[in-house]
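Help: read this over?
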Amino acid sequence: MAYVIGVDLGTSGTKTVLFDEMGRVIASHTIEYPLYQPQNGYAEQEPADWREAAFDTIRTVMDKSGISPEDVKGIGLSGQMHGLVMLDAENRVLRRSIIWCDQRTAAECAEMTEKLGLDRLMAITANPALTGFTASKILWVRNHEPEIYDKCRHILLPKDYVRFCLTGEYATEVSDASGMQLLDIPGRCWSDEVLEKLEIDRELLAKVYESPDITGTLTREAAQRCGLRPGIPVVGGAGDNAAAAVGTGVVRDGKAFTTIGTSGVVFAHTSGITIDPKGRVHTFCCAVPGAWHVMGVTQGAGLSLKWFRDNFCESEKETAALMGVDPYYLMDKAAMESPIGANRLLYLPYLMGERTPHLDPDARGVFFGLSAMHTKRDMLRAVMEGVTYSLRDCVEVCREMGVNVSDMMACGGGGTSPVWRQMLADLYGVPVGTVESKEGPALGAGILAMVGAGMYASVPEACDAVIRTGKIQQPIAENIPVYEKFYRLYTQVYPALREQFAALAALK
Protein backbone atom coordinates (compact mmCIF):
# COMPACT_ATOMS: atom_id res chain seq x y z
CA MET A 1 0.00 0.00 0.00
CA ALA A 2 1.21 3.51 -0.85
CA TYR A 3 0.63 6.53 1.39
CA VAL A 4 0.74 10.32 1.16
CA ILE A 5 0.86 13.15 3.68
CA GLY A 6 -1.37 16.23 3.57
CA VAL A 7 -0.24 19.22 5.64
CA ASP A 8 -2.86 21.95 6.21
CA LEU A 9 -1.33 25.12 7.65
CA GLY A 10 -4.24 27.05 9.15
CA THR A 11 -4.49 30.25 11.16
CA SER A 12 -5.14 28.55 14.49
CA GLY A 13 -2.94 25.51 13.92
CA THR A 14 -1.39 23.03 11.50
CA LYS A 15 -3.13 19.71 10.89
CA THR A 16 -1.22 16.89 9.23
CA VAL A 17 -2.95 13.75 7.99
CA LEU A 18 -1.49 10.51 6.66
CA PHE A 19 -3.72 8.98 3.94
CA ASP A 20 -3.62 5.71 2.07
CA GLU A 21 -4.02 5.71 -1.71
CA MET A 22 -7.83 5.56 -1.38
CA GLY A 23 -7.94 8.65 0.81
CA ARG A 24 -8.61 6.81 4.07
CA VAL A 25 -7.18 8.47 7.19
CA ILE A 26 -4.39 6.44 8.80
CA ALA A 27 -3.31 9.01 11.39
CA SER A 28 -3.69 12.74 12.05
CA HIS A 29 -2.30 15.31 14.44
CA THR A 30 -2.79 19.04 15.05
CA ILE A 31 -0.56 21.60 16.75
CA GLU A 32 -1.86 25.10 17.55
CA TYR A 33 0.09 28.36 17.72
CA PRO A 34 -0.60 31.99 18.66
CA LEU A 35 -1.80 34.98 16.69
CA TYR A 36 -0.22 38.34 17.54
CA GLN A 37 -2.13 41.64 17.33
CA PRO A 38 0.32 44.41 18.28
CA GLN A 39 -2.18 47.11 17.26
CA ASN A 40 -5.87 47.32 16.44
CA GLY A 41 -6.37 45.89 12.94
CA TYR A 42 -2.97 44.14 12.89
CA ALA A 43 -2.57 40.34 12.65
CA GLU A 44 0.78 38.54 12.61
CA GLN A 45 2.25 35.09 13.18
CA GLU A 46 5.72 33.62 13.58
CA PRO A 47 6.82 31.55 10.56
CA ALA A 48 8.98 29.49 12.93
CA ASP A 49 5.78 28.30 14.62
CA TRP A 50 4.50 27.01 11.27
CA ARG A 51 7.79 25.26 10.54
CA GLU A 52 7.95 23.52 13.90
CA ALA A 53 4.29 22.55 13.76
CA ALA A 54 4.75 21.02 10.30
CA PHE A 55 7.84 19.05 11.33
CA ASP A 56 6.31 17.84 14.59
CA THR A 57 2.90 16.89 13.18
CA ILE A 58 4.51 14.91 10.35
CA ARG A 59 6.70 13.04 12.80
CA THR A 60 3.74 12.38 15.10
CA VAL A 61 1.52 10.91 12.38
CA MET A 62 4.38 8.68 11.27
CA ASP A 63 4.97 7.52 14.85
CA LYS A 64 1.24 6.92 15.40
CA SER A 65 0.77 4.98 12.18
CA GLY A 66 3.69 2.56 12.33
CA ILE A 67 3.94 2.93 8.52
CA SER A 68 7.37 2.48 7.00
CA PRO A 69 8.81 5.76 5.68
CA GLU A 70 9.59 3.87 2.47
CA ASP A 71 5.85 3.62 1.76
CA VAL A 72 5.22 7.40 1.86
CA LYS A 73 5.24 8.51 -1.77
CA GLY A 74 4.48 12.22 -1.59
CA ILE A 75 3.69 15.30 0.51
CA GLY A 76 1.09 17.95 -0.32
CA LEU A 77 0.69 21.35 1.31
CA SER A 78 -2.40 23.47 1.93
CA GLY A 79 -2.37 26.74 3.75
CA GLN A 80 -3.84 30.05 4.82
CA MET A 81 -3.45 32.47 1.93
CA HIS A 82 -2.03 35.99 1.51
CA GLY A 83 0.49 35.96 4.40
CA LEU A 84 3.83 37.72 3.81
CA VAL A 85 7.07 35.91 4.73
CA MET A 86 10.28 37.85 4.07
CA LEU A 87 13.73 36.19 4.13
CA ASP A 88 17.18 37.77 3.98
CA ALA A 89 20.16 36.56 1.96
CA GLU A 90 20.87 33.85 4.57
CA ASN A 91 17.22 32.72 4.54
CA ARG A 92 16.54 34.18 7.98
CA VAL A 93 13.01 35.44 8.62
CA LEU A 94 13.15 39.23 8.78
CA ARG A 95 9.90 39.91 10.64
CA ARG A 96 6.70 38.21 11.77
CA SER A 97 4.41 37.35 8.90
CA ILE A 98 1.60 39.83 8.26
CA ILE A 99 -1.28 37.42 7.66
CA TRP A 100 -4.53 37.38 5.68
CA CYS A 101 -6.83 39.13 8.18
CA ASP A 102 -4.50 42.10 8.79
CA GLN A 103 -6.16 45.40 7.83
CA ARG A 104 -3.32 47.95 8.03
CA THR A 105 -2.79 48.48 4.28
CA ALA A 106 -5.63 50.76 3.14
CA ALA A 107 -3.17 53.47 1.98
CA GLU A 108 -1.13 50.91 0.06
CA CYS A 109 -4.28 49.63 -1.67
CA ALA A 110 -4.99 53.19 -2.80
CA GLU A 111 -1.39 53.42 -4.00
CA MET A 112 -1.79 50.23 -6.06
CA THR A 113 -5.02 51.47 -7.64
CA GLU A 114 -3.41 54.81 -8.50
CA LYS A 115 -0.32 53.23 -10.08
CA LEU A 116 -2.12 50.59 -12.13
CA GLY A 117 -5.65 51.93 -12.56
CA LEU A 118 -8.61 49.90 -11.33
CA ASP A 119 -9.56 48.51 -14.73
CA ARG A 120 -6.03 47.32 -15.52
CA LEU A 121 -5.56 45.88 -12.03
CA MET A 122 -8.82 43.95 -12.42
CA ALA A 123 -7.91 42.71 -15.90
CA ILE A 124 -4.56 41.30 -14.74
CA THR A 125 -5.13 40.19 -11.13
CA ALA A 126 -8.93 39.66 -11.40
CA ASN A 127 -9.52 41.55 -8.15
CA PRO A 128 -9.49 45.14 -6.85
CA ALA A 129 -6.69 46.08 -4.45
CA LEU A 130 -7.57 44.47 -1.12
CA THR A 131 -6.02 44.91 2.31
CA GLY A 132 -5.95 41.16 2.90
CA PHE A 133 -3.84 40.38 -0.17
CA THR A 134 -0.05 40.15 -0.18
CA ALA A 135 0.99 42.93 -2.58
CA SER A 136 -0.28 45.71 -0.31
CA LYS A 137 1.58 44.12 2.62
CA ILE A 138 4.84 44.22 0.62
CA LEU A 139 4.29 47.92 -0.08
CA TRP A 140 3.47 48.55 3.60
CA VAL A 141 6.81 47.06 4.71
CA ARG A 142 8.61 49.12 2.06
CA ASN A 143 6.81 52.30 3.20
CA HIS A 144 7.04 51.77 6.96
CA GLU A 145 10.00 49.43 7.54
CA PRO A 146 12.45 50.29 4.74
CA GLU A 147 15.41 48.81 6.59
CA ILE A 148 13.69 45.41 6.58
CA TYR A 149 12.60 45.73 2.95
CA ASP A 150 16.17 46.54 1.90
CA LYS A 151 17.39 43.28 3.46
CA CYS A 152 14.66 41.16 1.83
CA ARG A 153 15.83 38.67 -0.82
CA HIS A 154 12.92 36.22 -0.90
CA ILE A 155 9.14 36.60 -0.49
CA LEU A 156 7.08 33.50 0.28
CA LEU A 157 3.54 32.63 1.32
CA PRO A 158 2.96 30.74 4.59
CA LYS A 159 2.74 27.20 3.19
CA ASP A 160 5.57 27.98 0.77
CA TYR A 161 7.84 28.90 3.67
CA VAL A 162 7.12 25.44 5.10
CA ARG A 163 7.90 24.02 1.63
CA PHE A 164 11.24 25.84 1.72
CA CYS A 165 11.98 24.31 5.12
CA LEU A 166 11.15 20.84 3.76
CA THR A 167 12.89 21.07 0.38
CA GLY A 168 15.20 24.09 0.28
CA GLU A 169 13.28 25.31 -2.81
CA TYR A 170 11.71 28.74 -3.35
CA ALA A 171 8.45 27.67 -4.97
CA THR A 172 4.75 28.46 -5.00
CA GLU A 173 1.76 27.37 -7.06
CA VAL A 174 -0.94 29.15 -8.99
CA SER A 175 -3.88 28.94 -6.54
CA ASP A 176 -2.05 30.50 -3.58
CA ALA A 177 -0.07 32.90 -5.78
CA SER A 178 -3.41 34.18 -7.15
CA GLY A 179 -4.03 35.80 -3.76
CA MET A 180 -0.81 37.80 -3.81
CA GLN A 181 -2.22 40.24 -6.41
CA LEU A 182 1.02 39.97 -8.38
CA LEU A 183 -0.06 37.09 -10.63
CA ASP A 184 -1.45 37.39 -14.14
CA ILE A 185 -4.56 35.31 -13.42
CA PRO A 186 -5.49 34.60 -17.07
CA GLY A 187 -1.85 33.77 -17.93
CA ARG A 188 -1.07 31.86 -14.70
CA CYS A 189 2.34 33.57 -14.28
CA TRP A 190 3.84 36.58 -12.53
CA SER A 191 2.75 39.85 -14.12
CA ASP A 192 5.71 41.90 -15.33
CA GLU A 193 3.42 44.91 -15.70
CA VAL A 194 2.20 44.81 -12.09
CA LEU A 195 5.70 44.21 -10.74
CA GLU A 196 7.16 47.03 -12.82
CA LYS A 197 4.51 49.59 -11.84
CA LEU A 198 4.71 48.63 -8.17
CA GLU A 199 8.53 48.54 -8.39
CA ILE A 200 8.81 45.05 -6.91
CA ASP A 201 11.83 43.01 -8.04
CA ARG A 202 10.72 39.78 -9.72
CA GLU A 203 13.80 38.05 -8.26
CA LEU A 204 12.17 38.28 -4.83
CA LEU A 205 9.38 35.93 -5.91
CA ALA A 206 9.34 32.14 -6.02
CA LYS A 207 8.98 29.99 -9.11
CA VAL A 208 5.31 29.30 -9.97
CA TYR A 209 4.07 25.72 -10.51
CA GLU A 210 0.72 24.06 -11.09
CA SER A 211 -0.73 22.48 -7.94
CA PRO A 212 0.06 18.77 -8.62
CA ASP A 213 3.56 19.51 -9.98
CA ILE A 214 6.57 18.33 -7.99
CA THR A 215 8.29 21.43 -6.62
CA GLY A 216 11.17 19.74 -4.79
CA THR A 217 12.10 16.77 -2.64
CA LEU A 218 12.55 16.31 1.07
CA THR A 219 16.06 17.25 2.25
CA ARG A 220 18.08 14.97 4.49
CA GLU A 221 17.83 17.41 7.40
CA ALA A 222 14.05 17.79 7.07
CA ALA A 223 13.61 14.04 6.68
CA GLN A 224 15.40 13.44 9.99
CA ARG A 225 13.11 15.95 11.73
CA CYS A 226 9.97 14.44 10.19
CA GLY A 227 10.78 10.75 10.54
CA LEU A 228 10.73 10.26 6.77
CA ARG A 229 13.19 9.28 4.07
CA PRO A 230 15.03 11.93 2.02
CA GLY A 231 13.91 12.49 -1.54
CA ILE A 232 10.12 12.23 -1.06
CA PRO A 233 8.49 14.54 -3.64
CA VAL A 234 6.69 17.64 -2.35
CA VAL A 235 4.01 18.92 -4.74
CA GLY A 236 2.75 22.46 -5.22
CA GLY A 237 -0.37 21.96 -3.14
CA ALA A 238 -2.95 24.74 -2.92
CA GLY A 239 -4.37 27.60 -0.93
CA ASP A 240 -6.87 26.50 1.70
CA ASN A 241 -10.08 26.92 -0.30
CA ALA A 242 -8.60 25.52 -3.51
CA ALA A 243 -7.38 22.50 -1.52
CA ALA A 244 -10.81 22.12 0.09
CA ALA A 245 -12.30 22.05 -3.41
CA VAL A 246 -10.11 19.09 -4.33
CA GLY A 247 -10.93 17.45 -1.00
CA THR A 248 -14.66 17.69 -1.77
CA GLY A 249 -14.39 16.71 -5.45
CA VAL A 250 -15.17 20.18 -6.85
CA VAL A 251 -12.88 19.77 -9.86
CA ARG A 252 -15.21 19.95 -12.89
CA ASP A 253 -17.57 22.51 -14.41
CA GLY A 254 -20.93 22.68 -12.65
CA LYS A 255 -19.44 21.62 -9.33
CA ALA A 256 -19.30 23.99 -6.38
CA PHE A 257 -19.17 23.94 -2.60
CA THR A 258 -20.52 26.07 0.21
CA THR A 259 -18.54 26.34 3.42
CA ILE A 260 -20.28 27.61 6.54
CA GLY A 261 -17.49 28.24 9.01
CA THR A 262 -16.90 31.51 10.86
CA SER A 263 -17.23 33.10 7.45
CA GLY A 264 -19.09 31.55 4.55
CA VAL A 265 -17.70 30.72 1.11
CA VAL A 266 -19.31 29.78 -2.18
CA PHE A 267 -16.63 28.28 -4.45
CA ALA A 268 -17.39 27.33 -8.06
CA HIS A 269 -15.08 25.56 -10.51
CA THR A 270 -14.82 26.85 -14.09
CA SER A 271 -12.68 25.71 -17.01
CA GLY A 272 -12.95 29.16 -18.60
CA ILE A 273 -11.78 32.31 -16.88
CA THR A 274 -14.41 34.90 -16.02
CA ILE A 275 -13.86 38.05 -13.97
CA ASP A 276 -16.53 40.12 -12.22
CA PRO A 277 -15.82 43.74 -13.21
CA LYS A 278 -17.45 44.93 -9.98
CA GLY A 279 -15.01 42.92 -7.84
CA ARG A 280 -17.79 41.28 -5.82
CA VAL A 281 -16.19 37.83 -6.02
CA HIS A 282 -12.61 36.61 -6.36
CA THR A 283 -11.40 34.82 -9.49
CA PHE A 284 -8.31 32.71 -8.85
CA CYS A 285 -6.43 29.93 -10.60
CA CYS A 286 -7.60 26.66 -9.08
CA ALA A 287 -5.71 23.50 -8.21
CA VAL A 288 -6.73 21.75 -11.44
CA PRO A 289 -4.19 22.72 -14.13
CA GLY A 290 -5.68 25.02 -16.74
CA ALA A 291 -8.81 25.85 -14.72
CA TRP A 292 -10.00 28.62 -12.40
CA HIS A 293 -12.47 29.17 -9.60
CA VAL A 294 -14.85 31.93 -8.61
CA MET A 295 -15.29 32.51 -4.89
CA GLY A 296 -17.77 34.67 -3.00
CA VAL A 297 -17.43 35.36 0.72
CA THR A 298 -19.97 36.07 3.46
CA GLN A 299 -18.10 37.53 6.44
CA GLY A 300 -20.49 36.58 9.27
CA ALA A 301 -21.88 33.13 8.43
CA GLY A 302 -21.28 30.65 11.23
CA LEU A 303 -20.17 33.64 13.28
CA SER A 304 -23.79 34.87 13.29
CA LEU A 305 -25.09 31.60 14.71
CA LYS A 306 -22.26 31.43 17.27
CA TRP A 307 -23.02 35.03 18.31
CA PHE A 308 -26.69 34.11 18.79
CA ARG A 309 -25.79 30.94 20.71
CA ASP A 310 -23.39 32.72 23.04
CA ASN A 311 -25.77 35.58 23.82
CA PHE A 312 -29.24 34.03 23.77
CA CYS A 313 -29.00 30.24 24.10
CA GLU A 314 -27.72 29.60 27.63
CA SER A 315 -30.60 27.21 28.37
CA GLU A 316 -29.86 25.24 25.19
CA LYS A 317 -26.21 24.98 26.20
CA GLU A 318 -27.12 23.74 29.67
CA THR A 319 -29.63 21.19 28.32
CA ALA A 320 -27.18 20.01 25.68
CA ALA A 321 -24.54 19.42 28.36
CA LEU A 322 -26.98 17.24 30.34
CA MET A 323 -27.97 15.32 27.20
CA GLY A 324 -24.42 14.89 25.97
CA VAL A 325 -25.15 16.58 22.62
CA ASP A 326 -23.96 19.71 20.80
CA PRO A 327 -26.00 22.87 21.53
CA TYR A 328 -26.30 23.38 17.77
CA TYR A 329 -28.31 20.14 17.60
CA LEU A 330 -30.96 21.62 19.90
CA MET A 331 -30.81 24.93 18.03
CA ASP A 332 -31.54 23.05 14.80
CA LYS A 333 -34.60 21.51 16.43
CA ALA A 334 -35.80 24.91 17.65
CA ALA A 335 -35.36 26.51 14.22
CA MET A 336 -37.53 23.80 12.69
CA GLU A 337 -40.42 24.92 14.93
CA SER A 338 -40.53 28.27 13.13
CA PRO A 339 -41.92 28.42 9.56
CA ILE A 340 -40.07 29.48 6.42
CA GLY A 341 -39.63 33.24 6.70
CA ALA A 342 -39.48 33.04 10.51
CA ASN A 343 -42.93 34.65 10.81
CA ARG A 344 -41.88 37.56 8.58
CA LEU A 345 -38.55 38.23 10.31
CA LEU A 346 -35.39 38.87 8.26
CA TYR A 347 -31.78 38.97 9.42
CA LEU A 348 -28.83 40.63 7.68
CA PRO A 349 -25.66 38.76 8.75
CA TYR A 350 -23.27 41.71 8.46
CA LEU A 351 -21.69 41.50 11.92
CA MET A 352 -18.22 42.03 10.41
CA GLY A 353 -19.15 44.17 7.41
CA GLU A 354 -19.65 42.33 4.13
CA ARG A 355 -17.65 41.29 1.07
CA THR A 356 -19.96 39.60 -1.46
CA PRO A 357 -21.82 41.30 -3.00
CA HIS A 358 -21.59 44.65 -1.19
CA LEU A 359 -17.87 45.22 -0.42
CA ASP A 360 -18.93 47.37 2.54
CA PRO A 361 -16.90 47.32 5.77
CA ASP A 362 -19.50 49.59 7.41
CA ALA A 363 -22.44 47.19 6.95
CA ARG A 364 -23.79 45.77 10.22
CA GLY A 365 -26.20 43.09 11.38
CA VAL A 366 -29.92 43.81 11.30
CA PHE A 367 -33.11 42.11 12.44
CA PHE A 368 -35.80 43.50 10.12
CA GLY A 369 -39.47 43.10 10.99
CA LEU A 370 -39.04 42.27 14.68
CA SER A 371 -42.32 42.43 16.61
CA ALA A 372 -43.70 41.41 19.99
CA MET A 373 -45.01 38.15 18.52
CA HIS A 374 -41.55 36.84 17.68
CA THR A 375 -39.90 34.18 19.81
CA LYS A 376 -36.32 33.06 20.22
CA ARG A 377 -36.89 30.23 17.76
CA ASP A 378 -38.07 32.77 15.14
CA MET A 379 -34.91 34.81 15.67
CA LEU A 380 -32.82 31.65 15.47
CA ARG A 381 -34.40 30.61 12.19
CA ALA A 382 -34.06 34.15 10.85
CA VAL A 383 -30.31 34.05 11.57
CA MET A 384 -29.89 30.76 9.69
CA GLU A 385 -32.03 31.98 6.80
CA GLY A 386 -30.24 35.33 6.65
CA VAL A 387 -26.87 33.59 6.30
CA THR A 388 -28.35 31.41 3.56
CA TYR A 389 -29.74 34.47 1.73
CA SER A 390 -26.26 36.01 1.86
CA LEU A 391 -24.75 32.82 0.41
CA ARG A 392 -27.45 32.88 -2.29
CA ASP A 393 -26.15 36.38 -3.14
CA CYS A 394 -22.77 34.75 -3.87
CA VAL A 395 -24.40 32.11 -6.08
CA GLU A 396 -26.32 34.81 -7.97
CA VAL A 397 -23.08 36.65 -8.82
CA CYS A 398 -21.57 33.38 -10.11
CA ARG A 399 -24.61 32.76 -12.29
CA GLU A 400 -24.55 36.35 -13.54
CA MET A 401 -20.96 35.69 -14.66
CA GLY A 402 -22.02 32.58 -16.57
CA VAL A 403 -20.48 30.14 -14.10
CA ASN A 404 -22.50 26.92 -13.88
CA VAL A 405 -23.54 26.07 -10.31
CA SER A 406 -25.64 22.91 -10.51
CA ASP A 407 -23.87 20.41 -8.24
CA MET A 408 -23.31 21.79 -4.72
CA MET A 409 -21.48 20.29 -1.76
CA ALA A 410 -21.72 21.62 1.80
CA CYS A 411 -18.86 21.61 4.28
CA GLY A 412 -17.65 23.39 7.39
CA GLY A 413 -19.39 23.24 10.74
CA GLY A 414 -22.66 24.63 9.36
CA GLY A 415 -22.62 22.06 6.58
CA THR A 416 -23.20 19.32 9.17
CA SER A 417 -26.65 20.79 9.93
CA PRO A 418 -29.40 19.09 7.88
CA VAL A 419 -31.62 22.13 8.49
CA TRP A 420 -29.05 24.49 7.03
CA ARG A 421 -28.33 22.15 4.10
CA GLN A 422 -32.06 22.04 3.29
CA MET A 423 -32.20 25.83 3.32
CA LEU A 424 -29.25 25.90 0.90
CA ALA A 425 -30.89 23.34 -1.41
CA ASP A 426 -34.20 25.21 -1.43
CA LEU A 427 -32.63 28.64 -2.01
CA TYR A 428 -30.07 27.48 -4.59
CA GLY A 429 -32.59 25.23 -6.32
CA VAL A 430 -30.02 22.42 -6.63
CA PRO A 431 -29.18 19.27 -4.62
CA VAL A 432 -26.75 19.90 -1.77
CA GLY A 433 -24.57 16.98 -0.72
CA THR A 434 -21.80 16.19 1.72
CA VAL A 435 -18.69 14.05 1.48
CA GLU A 436 -17.83 11.27 3.89
CA SER A 437 -14.38 12.65 4.65
CA LYS A 438 -14.18 15.66 6.95
CA GLU A 439 -10.52 16.37 6.18
CA GLY A 440 -11.17 18.97 3.45
CA PRO A 441 -7.95 20.90 2.72
CA ALA A 442 -5.64 18.20 4.13
CA LEU A 443 -7.29 15.58 1.89
CA GLY A 444 -7.07 17.95 -1.06
CA ALA A 445 -3.34 18.39 -0.42
CA GLY A 446 -3.01 14.61 -0.14
CA ILE A 447 -4.83 14.05 -3.44
CA LEU A 448 -2.52 16.53 -5.17
CA ALA A 449 0.42 14.58 -3.74
CA MET A 450 -1.07 11.36 -5.16
CA VAL A 451 -1.20 12.90 -8.63
CA GLY A 452 2.31 14.30 -8.34
CA ALA A 453 3.62 10.91 -7.23
CA GLY A 454 2.01 9.23 -10.26
CA MET A 455 -0.61 7.27 -8.30
CA TYR A 456 -3.32 8.88 -10.46
CA ALA A 457 -3.08 10.52 -13.87
CA SER A 458 -5.04 13.70 -13.08
CA VAL A 459 -6.77 15.55 -10.27
CA PRO A 460 -10.30 14.67 -11.49
CA GLU A 461 -9.32 11.00 -11.83
CA ALA A 462 -7.92 10.99 -8.30
CA CYS A 463 -11.07 12.65 -6.93
CA ASP A 464 -13.25 10.05 -8.68
CA ALA A 465 -11.33 7.30 -6.90
CA VAL A 466 -10.99 8.94 -3.49
CA ILE A 467 -14.03 11.17 -2.80
CA ARG A 468 -17.06 9.37 -1.38
CA THR A 469 -20.38 11.23 -1.27
CA GLY A 470 -22.43 11.25 1.92
CA LYS A 471 -25.95 12.59 2.45
CA ILE A 472 -27.69 14.60 -0.28
CA GLN A 473 -30.44 17.15 0.40
CA GLN A 474 -32.83 17.60 -2.54
CA PRO A 475 -34.71 20.90 -2.99
CA ILE A 476 -38.30 20.73 -1.76
CA ALA A 477 -40.39 22.08 -4.65
CA GLU A 478 -43.06 23.75 -2.53
CA ASN A 479 -40.45 25.54 -0.41
CA ILE A 480 -38.74 27.27 -3.34
CA PRO A 481 -41.38 29.94 -4.17
CA VAL A 482 -41.90 30.70 -0.47
CA TYR A 483 -38.20 31.30 0.12
CA GLU A 484 -38.01 33.30 -3.11
CA LYS A 485 -40.45 35.94 -1.81
CA PHE A 486 -38.43 36.44 1.37
CA TYR A 487 -35.11 36.44 -0.48
CA ARG A 488 -36.30 39.16 -2.87
CA LEU A 489 -37.30 41.33 0.09
CA TYR A 490 -33.96 40.57 1.80
CA THR A 491 -32.08 41.92 -1.24
CA GLN A 492 -33.90 45.26 -0.87
CA VAL A 493 -33.03 45.88 2.79
CA TYR A 494 -29.27 46.55 2.46
CA PRO A 495 -29.62 49.18 -0.32
CA ALA A 496 -32.18 50.99 1.81
CA LEU A 497 -29.74 51.12 4.74
CA ARG A 498 -26.41 51.69 2.94
CA GLU A 499 -26.17 55.40 3.70
CA GLN A 500 -27.30 54.85 7.29
CA PHE A 501 -24.56 52.25 7.81
CA ALA A 502 -21.97 54.79 6.71
CA ALA A 503 -23.48 57.46 8.97
CA LEU A 504 -23.45 55.06 11.92
CA ALA A 505 -19.78 54.26 11.32
CA ALA A 506 -18.99 57.97 11.34
CA LEU A 507 -20.58 58.58 14.74
CA LYS A 508 -18.16 59.07 17.61
